[in-house]
Design goal:
The chain is of the alpha+beta class and about 170 residues long. The protein has one domain (about 10-135). Helices cover about 35% and strands about 30% of the residues. The chain contains six helices and seven strands; from the N terminus they run E-H-E-H-E-E-E-H-E-E-H-H-H. The protein has helices spanning about 10-15, 30-35, 95-100, 115-130, 145-160, 165-174, and strands at about 10, 20-25, 45-55, 55-70, 80-90, 105-110, 115. It has a five-stranded mixed β-sheet with strand order 2-3-4-5-6. Strands 1-7 form a two-stranded antiparallel ribbon. Strand 3 (about 45-55) and strand 4 form a beta hairpin. The radius of gyration is 23 Å and the shape is elongated. The model is unreliable at about 145-150 and about 150-160 (pLDDT under 50). Bound molecules: zinc ion. The site of zinc ion has 8 residues, from loops.
Length: about 170
């Protein structure tokens, strides 16, 4: 059994120790994520590796991974989504420092001496969620789903209608 994650850590110390946290977090312990999933029973797999790059910059690498149940925005029924994100975070002390970071880093502003590990995990997962979760085309299934699909289909149809001004000009020509 992996040991429980500490809540808050001092990132400088963790980096000096080249500390690695790996294990699981419960979705119920990630309230912002729990709010957007339909089933908060599961867990999130994580690995956070603290390091000092070039003896200076503190970085957090690793990954977060979860199988989530989201609400399909087309049929409003549950859909499974595998979400995974590779971390490449650099701790910065100011916005200016964040701007100077090489592009492959995601800056994390360190405004307190300690950081909350679950916040990092939760932020990363929220950023990795599909913006508009939807079943693949044709995979929306329930009867409710068919109704929900209808307006979208109609809307699409209306896009293909001839431009009303074109019709008007036709009338004028008669
Ligand atoms: Zn659907």
């Amino acid at each position: 059994m992996p040991s429980r994650l500490p809540d808050f850590v001092d990132p400088r110390r963790m980096a000096d120790l080249e500390k690695v946290f790996s294990g699981c977090a419960a979705i119920v312990d990630l309230p912002r994520l729990a709010e957007v999933v339909l089933d908060a029973d599961g867990g999130v797999e994580l690995r956070l590796v603290f390091n000092r790059e070039g003896g200076k910059r503190i970085s957090i690498t690793g990954f977060v991974r979860a199988n989530l149940i989201l609400e399909c925005q087309r049929c409003l029924s549950p859909m499974a989504a595998s979400v995974e994100s590779q971390l490449n975070i650099a701790l910065v002390n100011s916005a200016e420092e964040a701007e100077r970071l090489p592009e492959h880093y995601d800056p994390l502003l360190l405004d307190e001496p300690r950081i909350r590990l679950l916040d990092i995990v939760e932020d990363e997962l929220l950023l990795s969620l599909p913006q508009v979760p939807r079943h693949k085309e044709g995979e929306c299934c329930s009867a409710v789903s068919q109704k929900a699909v209808q307006p979208a289909a109609d809307f699409k149809g209306s896009d293909n209608r001839p431009n009303p001004f074109a019709v008007l000009s036709e009338l004028k020509q008669r």
